[in-house]
Design brief:
The complex is a heterodimer of chains A (286) and B (290). Chain A has 286 residues and is mostly helical. Chain A has one domain: ABC transporter involved in vitamin B12 uptake, BtuC (Orthogonal Bundle), CATH 1.10.3470.10. Chain B is of the alpha/beta class and 290 residues long. Chain B folds into two domains: 157 residues, 3-Layer(aba) Sandwich (Rossmann fold), CATH 3.40.50.300; 74 residues, no CATH class. Chain B contains nine helices and twelve strands. In chain B, strand 4 and strand 5 form a beta hairpin. Chain B starts with a helix and ends in an 11-residue tail after the last helix. Classes of the chains: A mainly alpha (286), B alpha/beta (290). Chains A and B meet through helix 7, helix 8, helix 10, helix 11 and helix 14 of A and helix 3 of B.
Chain lengths: 286, 290
């Protein structure tokens, strides 16, 4: 599995894992999992369209992912974000279905776009991946504090003169870029498990946001490397292993969080809001 | 009626926050009408009113999130700029995810430079400033704890440190006592009073119940139906002033150092006091503030 033709796969998968860990941390923090699921699905239509007209697949992915991100941001400006996200993704999938129906080479190409492809990475795909990855990571680093503040307390950020809508737009564009470079490797359907599983697990092991990102990247790397090795030996789709390992990391993290809470007994020992409210009334009427 | 505040509020020093005849119209409805009051340095003012009276609208105007239809907001005697670092703000009901990897000190640090671009470089000055602020609000003990897993009172103190770390002259707190148990409520009130005096800060606290704030407020601004009456507690919280403000008869009852504001049925037709008090245990609609 470390043969010459696999070198590109290892390199690209490593880059994908780093980007997914970094971007995924904020996807989980902002509660944007649905958008992180929708944008890769939308971008699938772009790849199908590019395939149809004979254009570059990553280019098609990027155009549709960006269009999906802008669509979600625009529609959610005046409405509920989940509804806007759903509408944007359904619209894109409808286009994808249309493009696929026009296409002659149906099965193999579609399958690898949806579930990922270990062997199909050529040297010419390397450069765009590196550029997009750098773009995503530099953008996250630049907006690090703004992303934290607007994730944790959006109302307060707004009051301090931060344009929360612009930050959200930039963030969705970062997700779009991360998607475009990851979909060819892990597939549109399972891309998002890499963005959710490892970062969600990392939250349980540290209280420091910076270490949480480092841990998320480490878990994502472990997931992707193990998935490639497993996929190579079993010939099962890589996306299957990414999904299962992502979920396994998440469950381990939850289990650790429960164990830690039981040991310290912290939140359980505190009265709930309802109980303290009742005490208050009793104390006041007395 | 709002003008009876002017005599009392005109201290020696000019106010840090001054609302001058603020009117707000939203979709054809008048939300605020001729709101006038000021908050001076070292002064703690309670903004009191029931839900929907216009307290949050007043905050939104002061924060610059809502442009008033008439009147001016002056901060330090100047019109409020778009990005104002001299206003600290603690919003109501901050729902923090208990699993979020963010420590109390990270949240306070975001108060210092959360609006800036780039990754924060670790600096001794930054750390000292955050530590100092956590100490000032008695939050040193849980400085490195996950902020989402803290109790309501502890989170409130971290939020106050977040608002204070950029050294504002004015601090706004929206219902800081809501959802706190009685002991945390007292601790937060005492903390705010101490900070206002020590740092010479102008503090405006909104609340639906004046009583927890009674020992510490210098003045109150009572809001009802978009109108305000401001002055000392004794000037404002009286049957006469509040009846005029609400537009129908209310009774102000003082009992064991506490103030009860109760909707009455007009002079001469008041039910016996005991009956009124008996009704207080039920959150009935006609009790505007308990």
């Amino acid at each position: 599995m470390f043969a010459g033709f696999m070198v590109n796969t290892w390199i690209v998968a490593t880059i994908v894992a780093i980007v997914a860990g970094v971007v995924g941390f904020f996807v989980v923090l902002r509660g944007s999992s649905f958008a992180a699921h929708a944008i890769p699905n939308a971008s699938f239509a772009g790849a199908a369209g590019a395939n149809l007209v004979g254009a570059n697949a990553v280019g098609g992915l990027l155009v549709f992912a960006v269009a999906g991100a802008l669509g979600i941001a625009f529609l959610s400006k005046r409405g509920r974000r989940d509804v806007a996200t759903a509408l944007a993704v359904v619209l894109m999938l409808a286009l994808g279905a249309l493009f696929l129906s026009f296409s002659t080479e149906y099965a193999a190409e579609t399958y690898s776009l949806l579930f990922g492809e270990v062997l199909g990475i050529s040297s010419s795909e390397l450069m765009p991946t590196v550029v997009l990855a750098l773009l995503a990571i530099v953008a996250v680093a630049t907006c690090w504090r703004l992303l934290l503040l607007t994730s944790v307390m959006p109302e307060l950020a707004e009051a301090r003169g931060v344009h929360t809508y612009r930050v959200e737009l930039v963030f969705l564009l970062i997700v779009a870029v991360a998607t475009s470079l990851s979909v060819p490797v892990v597939g549109a359907l399972l891309m998002f498990s890499l963005m959710i599983g490892p970062p969600a697990a990392a939250r349980s092991f540290t209280t420091n946001p910076f270490f949480a990102v480092v841990l998320a990247v480490s878990f994502a790397l472990a997931t992707v490397w193990a998935a490639i090795a497993a996929s190579y030996t079993t010939t099962w789709p890589i996306g299957f292993f990414v999904g299962v390992l992502g979920a396994a990391f998440f469950l381990t993290g939850r289990a650790y969080a429960v164990w830690r809470r039981d040991r310290t007994g912290a939140p359980a020992a505190r009265p709930s809001a309802g109980q303290s409210g009742a005490t208050e009334i009793v104390a006041r009427s007395g | 009626m709002a003008d009876l505040a002017q005599g009392a509020s005109a201290g020696v020093r000019p106010p840090i926050l001054e609302l001058d005849g603020i009117g707000v119209w939203l979709s054809g409805r008048e939300i605020l009408d001729d709101v006038k009051f000021g908050v001076g340095p070292g002064e703690l003012v309670g903004l009191i009113g029931s839900n929907g009276a216009g307290k949050t609208t007043i905050f939104r105007v002061v924060l610059g999130l809502l442009a008033p239809s008439s009147g001016r907001v002056l901060i330090d005697g100047r019109p409020r700029p778009r990005r104002n670092r001299s206003v600290g703000y603690v919003p109501q009901k901050i729902a923090l995810d208990p699993d979020m990897p963010l420590r109390s000190r990270d949240l306070v640090a975001l108060g210092l430079d959360g609006h800036r671009l780039g990754v924060p470089l670790p600096s001794r000055r930054r750390r000292e400033l955050v530590d100092e602020m956590l100490h000032a609000v008695d939050a040193t003990r849980f400085a490195d704890s996950r902020v989402g897993s803290l109790s309501g009172g502890e989170q409130q103190r971290v939020m106050i440190a977040h608002a204070l770390v950029s050294r504002p002259e004015l601090l706004l707190l929206d219902e800081p006592l809501a959802n706190l148990d009685l002991r945390s409520e007292q601790e937060v009130v005492e903390l705010l009073a101490r900070i206002a005096k020590e740092k010479g800060l102008a503090v405006l606290i909104s609340a639906h119940d004046l009583n927890p704030l009674l020992p510490v407020v210098d003045r109150v601004v009572y809001v009802a139906h978009g109108h305000v009456a401001s002055g000392t507690t004794d000037e404002v919280v009286t049957t006469e002033v509040l009846t005029r403000l609400y537009g129908h008869h209310v009774d102000v009852i003082r009992l064991h150092g506490r103030i009860l504001v109760v909707a009455g049925q007009g002079r001469g037709a008041d039910p016996p006091l005991a009956q009124e008090l008996g009704r207080l245990s039920n959150p009935l609609d006609d009790i505007m503030a308990v």
